[in-house]
Amino acid sequence: KNTKGKAKPAKVKLRLTRAIPVGAQLPCVDNSGAKVLNVISVYFGGGRLNRLPSASIGDLMLVSVRQGKPDLKKKVMPSVLLRQRKMWRRTNGVSVYCEDNGSCIITPKGQLKGSVINGPITKECSELWPNLSNKASAVL
User: Fold this and answer.
1) Which pLDDT belongs to residue 25?
2) How far is it, in rounded angstroms, from Cα 136 to Cα 132?
3) Fewest CB within a 10 Å sphere: which of 3, 7, 30, 41?
4) Strands (E), 1-140
5) Residue with the larger pLDDT of the pair 140 and 64
6) What backbone torsions phi and psi does residue 15 show, to the nearest 5 degrees?
7) How far is it, in rounded angstroms, from Cα 121 to Cα 101?
């Protein structure tokens, strides 16, 4: 359980192939008004000398809004990665990948900033963030 009121995943995350490095630009797939997000940092990511921190599905990231509504532009806010194009392997042995990358903006408490998520989200992300899976159209 989340005791301090900060955004955290609901359970322990499995190791997935990391696909989105710091500095990447991602489409925002919710209806919060942001269009393009720039990754600033990845929460809970260990480091390695000369390697860029990178995110995988379900990771919490700090992003800035590059394109979108004027009141959101240049603002720094937390975000969750919902889809990635890089292939990853599930525990049952199946290799899966998505059609595109996609991220959504969340509040510091962990709730979705918009009201709906466009397109599907992955099963791994819906297990980590159950409140986001309620707003998605489908779960892959």
Assistant:
1) 97
2) 7
3) 3
4) 20-21, 25-27, 34-42, 54-55, 60-68, 76-83, 88-89, 95-96, 102-105
5) 64
6) -75, 120
7) 10
